[in-house]
From TrEMBL:
Highest classification ranks of the organism: Eukaryota, Metazoa, Spiralia, Lophotrochozoa, Mollusca
Protein name: Reverse transcriptase Ty1/copia-type domain-containing protein
InterPro entries: DNA/RNA_pol_sf, RVT_2
Pfam families (UniProt xref): RVT_2
Biased composition (Basic and acidic residues): 131-142
Domain Reverse transcriptase Ty1/copia-type residues, every copy: 283-487
């Protein structure tokens, strides 16, 4: 009823049902409306007109629908735009950078359009002197006038509004280009491609000049403005001509961001020769799915194989560089006065080794593969179980062919020696390379980037696997503050916080584990001062209470209070002046209700000029129950020495030195352990005698040069085994590069 009244511009009144005074008025309104409806039904012409003008309010518009729309009081169709959401009788449409509120009767879906006229700009029909309708269609270069002779009094149902035909319109994609992007373009009537660098946009995103960009030609360095809507152009990536990947946007039809990203990814698969089409004769073909991500306002698509469907057993491990190795790398790089750099490999898995087995895929619909065809992979694709390993093996094979040597203790590290001297180091973390070296090593990296298409190549200031690395004239700084800033400030309801002794429920246990994981990652990288608190809280994972959760929340929030940085100063280039210092500490019965003990050690690489680079630190619960302080301290010293032996071996392997070239000194704040190691007097604990004998043997064989006692207030590892111990000296040592 209200719908019909709205069409006929009839105002609807409602009356109170319990008022006898109003009942007559209501009946008269009903009678008038009934009479009007009967007359309308009898008038065929008006019935046809109503059918032609019926409102579209019953049509449902979903988020993402592509539509044409009319503005209020205008006859011109605009669009296409995208539906954002529908709020009752109002639909919000995004057209470029503009949001428009539109009534449903002024909307039509593009997929429902089947009109004949192609046009970029339709003006309002005017009536000429002869009474005929004349519609002018204005194109960019020409203006075509067409006269349609129609009877002004013909039935409304025979007159159809003209809307741009979807199939014929060259709907231009607004190029999503940023400063320093590389493109190449070809001017009209020219067969020469001109390479250029994007400087900035030359017009507003939503204006008539939205396709204009300011560019600088790479050859003659001329600065000019180019309308990418009128020239053939490509966006190119990579640092070599033969490895460029471009996606031609000139002849693209109307695509949204996700569809453009999918076509870009399919183009990469083709350019890297990732697959070949073959006949489907019943092979076991794996299915795929698209993974869509948005980063820095750019939509990226990745075709991922459902690798779990493959019934094949293969080796799938792929080494990645560890946190301790990164610290060693930065220490050596700073000392050699090399520039630290990072290289990101684009579409890494697509550039891996050729598969030695047959893997068949069902092609995605977006590939437009012919019916009866499937894909046979030549290289690994994302999602396969051994994708990362295949890429690592290809990198390893290439680096070895270029004369590099793989580190025997860390397979993710490769070094290059020239004339028996270290020339460069490269650390691999899947497709992210961290490297430094001299000019001869840079030639190796240039050849490596010829084999693998590289993306970003940055130096001195960049982000690497979650760390911010900065290099200046004094050395290198590893900044972990970005990770700390991303940690959410967790809160708990006051009413729940009051129930301190209550056992954690399932969701609270999940939150507790998450907080412990965040603190543990921070401890391993840049916050050793919170090591003991992390160990103590981790012993409550199975029987945690609300009080433990509150403690974890407070500890997590404290991570942001101090800037988390580690300094790696330039050390003496004379390696003979280097030595390794290890400090160890332990506490008896201070966790697990007195049944557990903790141990810790900190290791530095120092020189004779008061410079020190932190290599690693560790704090753990002692693996066995100990009955005395001397036993706890001895086990901590033994673990610290083993860690220092391992890191010394890596340093000597990288530098090409003989074993045990770099001396090791150990410091402990327990005199009884020092006396037991140097003396022939046996300790009472017979099991401890074995550990003391192992330490004494290392001392006798010169694996460790000295084991010395230091007072407790000078023991930097003290704060890692005791709650409330001062950590200022430890902070000053690894944050400022001060000598420990």
């Amino acid at each position: 009823m209200r719908e019909v009244a709205s069409i006929l511009n009839v105002k609807v009144y409602t009356t109170a049902g319990e008022s006898p005074f109003q009942n007559g008025l209501c009946e008269r309104v009903h009678a008038i409306t009934d009479t009007m409806l009967m007359k309308l039904e009898a008038d065929y012409r008006q019935t046809k007109a109503l059918r032609g003008k019926i409102r579209a309010s019953e049509q449902i518009f979903d988020h993402g629908d592509s539509v044409f729309y009319k503005r209020e009081g205008k006859d011109r169709w605009l669009g296409p735009g995208k539906v954002v959401f529908q709020d009752g009788k109002v639909i919000f449409v995004r057209h470029g950078g503009v949001f428009v509120r539109v009534s449903p009767n002024r909307l039509t879906k593009t997929k429902d359009i089947n009109f004949r006229e192609q046009n970029d700009n339709i003006e309002t029909p005017d009536t000429n002197e002869t009474g005929n309708h004349e519609t002018r269609y204005t194109n960019k270069n020409t203006e075509v006038s067409r006269v349609e002779k129609k009877d002004c009094f013909s039935e409304l149902s025979t007159s159809k509004e003209r809307i741009p035909q979807m199939e014929n319109i060259q709907a231009k994609i607004i190029p999503n280009l940023k400063e320093n992007d590389k493109i190449q373009y070809k001017l009209p009537n020219s067969n020469t491609w001109t390479k250029a660098t994007v400087l900035s946009k030359a017009g507003k995103t939503t204006g008539k000049n939205k396709h204009w960009y300011n560019v600088q030609d790479d050859i003659d360095e001329d600065k000019k403005s180019v309308d990418l809507d009128k020239v053939e152009w490509e966006k190119v990536t990579g640092d070599s001509d033969e490895n460029e990947i471009g996606v031609n946007m000139t002849n693209s039809s109307f695509l949204n961001d996700e569809e453009i990203a999918k076509q870009t990814e399919l183009s990469k698969l083709h350019n890297f020769d990732t697959y070949e089409e073959c006949d489907d004769i019943g092979q076991n073909a794996l299915s795929t799915r698209w993974v869509i991500t948005t980063k820095d306002n750019q939509t990226k698509a990745r075709l991922v194989v459902r690798g779990f469907e493959e019934e094949f057993t293969m080796q799938r491990d792929s080494p990645t560089v560890g946190k301790g190795m990164i610290k060693l790398f930065l220490s050596i790089t700073a000392s050699m006065n090399w520039i630290v750099k990072t290289t990101d490999i684009k579409s890494a898995f697509l550039q891996g080794k050729i598969l030695d087995r047959d893997v068949f895929l069902k092609p995605p619909p977006e590939s437009n593969s012919k019916k009866g065809k499937i894909w046979r992979l030549k290289h690994c694709l994302y999602g396969l179980k051994d994708g990362a390993r295949q890429f690592y093996l290809s990198v390893r094979e290439e680096l070895l062919s270029l004369g590099c040597k793989q580190c025997s203790l860390d397979p993710a590290v490769f070094v290059k020696h020239t004339d028996q001297r270290l020339s460069g180091i490269i650390c691999c973390h899947v497709d992210d390379f961290l490297h430094s070296g001299d000019e001869k090593f840079e030639e190796v990296m240039r050849k490596l980037r010829t084999r693998f298409v590289a993306g970003k190549i940055e130096e001195k200031n960049f982000s690497y696997v979650g760390f911010q690395i900065h290099q200046n004239k004094n050395g290198i700084i590893l900044d972990h503050s970005t990770y700390m800033e991303k940690i959410d400030n967790t809160t708990i309801e006051p009413s729940r916080a009051a129930m301190k002794q209550d056992v954690l429920n399932t969701s609270e246990q999940t939150l507790y584990r998450k907080l412990i994981g965040q603190i543990n990652w921070a401890v391993q990288v840049s916050r050793p001062d919170m090591a003991f608190e992390m160990i103590d809280m981790s012993t409550k994972l199975k029987e945690g209470t609300v009080a433990h959760l509150i403690r974890a929340i407070k500890a997590s929030n404290r991570l942001k209070e101090i800037k988390s940085i580690i300094s790696f100063p330039k050390m003496n280039k004379d390696i003979k002046e280097w030595k390794i210092i290890v400090l160890t500490d332990a506490s008896l019965g201070n966790i697990s209700n007195g049944t557990g003990s903790t141990e810790s050690h900190v290791i530095w690489l120092v020189d004779n000029e008061s410079n020190s680079c932190p290599i690693t630190w560790q704090a753990n619960k002692i693996k066995r129950v100990v009955r005395s302080t001397i036993a706890a301290e001895a086990l901590s010293l033994q673990d610290g020495l083993e860690s220092s032996f391992y890191h010394r071996r890596i340093i000597e392997d990288i530098l090409g030195l003989k074993h045990q070239t770099i001396p090791i000194e150990a410091y402990i704040d327990n005199k009884s352990v020092v006396e037991a190691v140097y003396s022939t007097k046996l300790v009472d604990d017979k099991r401890l005698r074995i550990d003391i004998a192992a330490i004494a043997e290392s001392l006798a064989s010169k694996e460790v040069n000295n084991i010395k006692w230091c007072p407790g207030d000078k023991q930097l590892a003290n704060c890692m085994t005791k709650f409330g111990a001062s950590s200022y000296e430890l902070f000053a040592s690894y944050s400022n590069g001060e000598k420990c």
